Amino acid sequence: KPRKKDVTEKSKSVVESKPAVHVPVDRTPEMQASRQKLPIIGEEQVIMETINENAVIIVCGETGSGKTTQVPQFLYEAGYAHGGGIIGVTEPRRVAAISMSKRVAAEMNLTDREVSYQIRYEGNVTPDTHVKFMTDGVLLKEVQQDFLLLKYSTIIVDEAHERSVYTDILIGLLSRIVPLRAKPPVIKVDSRQYPVTIHFNRRTPDDYLTEAYRKTCKIHQQLAEGGILVFVTGQQEVQTLCRKLKKAFPHHKGQVLPNINLNNYSVEPTDEEAEMEQGDNSDARVFDPPPEGCRLCVVATNVAETSLTIPNIRYVVDTGKTKTKFYDKVTGVSTFRITWTSKASANQRAGRAGRVGPGHCYRLYSSAMFNDNFPQFSPPEITRRPVDDLVLQMKDMSIDKVANFPFPTPPDTDQIKAAETLLVSLGALSEPEKPKTFKAKVAKTAPTSKITALGRAMASFPIAPRYARMLAMGHQQELLPYVIAAVAALSVDQLFVEFQAPADAQNEDEDLKRRIQNINNVKRMWAGTGNSLLLGDLMVLLKAVGACEYEGLSPEFCARYGIRSKAMKEVRKLRTQLTNTVNMALPEVNLCVDPKLTPPTDRQAKLLRQIVATGLADHVARLMPDLPPGVEGDSKKHKHAYQCTELEDPVYIHPTSALYHKDKEYVVYQHIHETSRPYMKGVVAVEAEWLPLLAPYHCTFSKPLEDPPPSWDAETGQVKCHRTSTFGRCGWALPAVCV
Ligand code: ADP
Ligand code: MG
């Protein structure tokens, strides 16, 4: 916990110890020449003088002007890495942290021992590291160990305008670490932006993807050379569009038309940071010039809007759409919705066409649509997702009054309340004390809950609090390797490819349909019988993890079973990290780090179901009875329908789930995602009599029953008796158990 005094001393010492040395960098002549072209180079002196005189500065400039790659080098040359401190740079995305560290190392002619990166699972930081690129989440974790960030001489918060949740919290924390004595100066870097002519569609078409295809073909066939960058909303659309373009312009020699060199370059908006789907070297392909006689065409999602600059783009085709995950703050139900992007990001997209010369941006929507329906900016992420992990981390940093924290945009009080309730129910926070005195009641200061010992243990794991709770429960019966594998698999988004039959159904799609069917059959087979089946989707995940490790994560194997091999690699890394964390905290456990995993036995599967139930105790659903004959109502809506505690309307088990149409009375689910219906994802069957013991927080207990009579536990000296209970908001009657 910081003392005020230290903070001022530290910030002073940083400001006052501005280094006077010049540290030479031995760049190659080619690198030197390409740097010289960047607009920011002309601002070096101004930027460095401002940094030397201020605790905080803001550097503003167009994408591609050189902020990310050059500012760390300015600092390095000015000696900021030679007083014993590191120059730290945070990025909201892992891919940017890695690729930028590589780029800066190459520009400076240094190795990755000196210019390094650290992301959630891996890094190459050494004692010789001078410049360290990391994800914002990594620095946030470091603040918990070292509130004053003494390791660093400078922190660069890159892409601060993107307002990622962790970046927002970092800014709030930094504002406490470095008292802002005056408004930070803003340096604007003028970039050489060529004019971009904006062409609006006269009318806004219904089908933007077909329109994008049409426009891309037209540009390619009729307009002078120069790369085309098309913005669509997701992986599926990238693939559909690329397939159609490849078909229209097959790539072979002797072709009259100019060939098209397609690069699909996309990212799904997941809860995780953005990642490229095309394997690790796809960014290199985008930076390479296209083959002779070819036109570069990049179909991308909004990852290409800012953080990565693709060279030689002259034409931008902008659908104006973006896919965002919406999350209902009250019910927790998530949906992906395709909406208009903001004016700010549409302008960013257009700007991509003016990097090498005058360019054109084709907006596939009308100017009236743009003016009337596009919001000015996108809302920051912190207002769009649950904040339970953030609240736990902040409580672990002794920031108890989360609502008072200087967030750039504070989350809703409802969001914070929901997070605190969940954390109390998981045992991570103590129940807030009720105001005792009249004075306290009048003062209306919200009672604050404090972190518990269990909560501290949970906060040490880099996973969502409910999964951390499962880990804490798993410390028995040699279950830890399974629990670790399970929570790792649950933490990584979309382990299985989510197939959607393409809208333009054609012959080739018969193959796809057959493949989907095969994969679903395999999943059903993997679920097995007995407790294995009841462990449901989690069993499928465990089997998938085990089988992939057995096959050495072979890409062919993954492809055959519809597993995203990239996600599986992430599961492996997360498992290793969690195993190491457990081994460090509990040396007597001494878990094996070999990722091989045999399927759990029936007894283990049953225990795993109980462990999962503790982490998902607020996500219990109960099968709705069929409508009795003769009763009015939508019987189809009732068939296989479940009632959950958050929603009035019924919810369903997804057809790809192992428990689809199995009609188990009680289930827990990972989350509800609404597509054509509200579907529960990650479903595991639980038993009614477990709930009073595993989820007492959600139960209202009866008075002790007389029959059977109370028993006396000789060991603890406690009297135990049977009670019945009702569960949750719906008041489901649970059987009597001894509590
Ligand atoms: P900013 O942060 O201001 O958006 P950057 O520092 O990321 O700008 O980029 C500056 C220039 O360096 C851009 O012109 C970009 O194309 C180039 N660049 C960045 N990464 C690479 C790379 N891996 N290979 C080649 N050029 C790169
Ligand atoms: Mg940048």
Number of strands: 24
Q: Can you list the strand order of the major beta sheet?
A: 7-14-11-8-10-9
User: How many helical stretches?
Assistant: 26
Q: Compute the average pLDDT.
A: 84
Helix fraction?
A: 25-40%
Distance between the termini: 39 Å
- Contiguous uncertain segments of 5+ residues: 1-17, 252-259, 263-284
- Shape designation: globular
- Whole-angstrom Rg: 28 Å
Small-molecule binders here are: adenosine-5'-diphosphate, magnesium ion
Largest sheet: 6 strands, parallel
Helix/strand structural class:
alpha/beta
Strand content: 15-25%
Catalytic activity: ATP + H2O = ADP + phosphate + H(+)
GO molecular function: ATP binding; hydrolase activity; RNA helicase activity
Domain Helicase C-terminal: 208-398
Organism: Batillaria attramentaria
Structure described in brief:
The protein has 739 residues and is an alpha/beta fold. 37% of the residues lie in helices and 17% in strands.
Secondary-structure map with pairings?
Layout: H1 4-16, H2 29-36, H3 44-53, E1 58-61, H4 67-77, E2 86-91, H5 94-108, E3 115-118, E4 131-135, H6 136-145, E5 152-157, H7 165-177, E6 186-189, E7 196-200, H8 208-222, E8 227-231, H9 235-248, E9 259-265, H10 282-287, E10 294-300, E11 313-318, E12 321-327, E13 334-340, H11 343-351, E14 359-363, H12 367-373, H13 388-396, H14 413-425, H15 438-443, H16 453-459, H17 465-473, H18 480-491, H19 508-527, H20 530-534, H21 536-550, H22 555-560, H23 565-585, H24 602-615, E15 620-623, H25 635-638, E16 642-644, E17 652-653, E18 666-674, E19 678-686, H26 691-694, E20 699-701, E21 711-712, E22 719-720, E23 722-727, E24 732-738
Parallel strand pairs: 1-6, 2-4, 2-5, 3-4, 7-14, 8-10, 8-11, 9-10, 11-14, 17-19
Antiparallel strand pairs: 12-13, 15-16, 15-18, 18-19, 20-23, 21-22, 23-24
Helix pairs in contact: 4-5, 6-7, 8-9, 13-14, 16-17, 17-18, 17-24, 18-21, 18-23, 19-21
Bound molecules: adenosine-5'-diphosphate and magnesium ion.
Residues 67-68, 158, 307 line the site of magnesium ion.
GO molecular function: ATP binding; hydrolase activity; RNA helicase activity
Domain Helicase C-terminal: 208-398
Keywords: ATP-binding, Helicase, Hydrolase, Nucleotide-binding
